[in-house]
Amino acid sequence: xxxxxxxxxxxxxxxxxxxxxxxxxxxxxxxxxxxxxxxxxxxxxxxxxxxxxxxxxxxxxxxxxxxxxxxxxxxxxxxxxxxxxxxxxxxxxxxxxxxxxxxxxxxxxxxxxxxxxxxxxxxxxxxxxxxxxxxxxxxxxxxxxxxxxxx
Length: 151
Prior knowledge:
Layout: H1 2-5, E1 34-35, H2 41-51, H3 55-69, E2 81-83, E3 86-88, H4 99-115, H5 118-139
Antiparallel strand pairs: 1-2, 2-3
């Protein structure tokens, strides 16, 4: 499977359980030690390993998503990335971005759809709602209570 030579190769679960390196990772470069970039780097990797059909990789994808979810702020903002084990909420350029929430949510939906794991979806749903509300608040969107069918 090609996924083992490409996307699975950047899983850094031995040193950083539940985290994934960036695709352009190279030692002694700016991204070294930075993990779980959901803008959209980690989304691409999660998609590839979920569609691989490999149970171990699917479980690893869930662990990565849960790792980022465990550090969500009360306002719904997910970490932009991790610097080692420490979550960072502002991008490397210093901006506050919607990308991490957007791509993390899409990764959760892909994982649920492909794996048909409703139990996992129920576990993640409160965090997914909070992350979605953060996006709506960032863009000045409609009141989340208007989405009664979804929530």
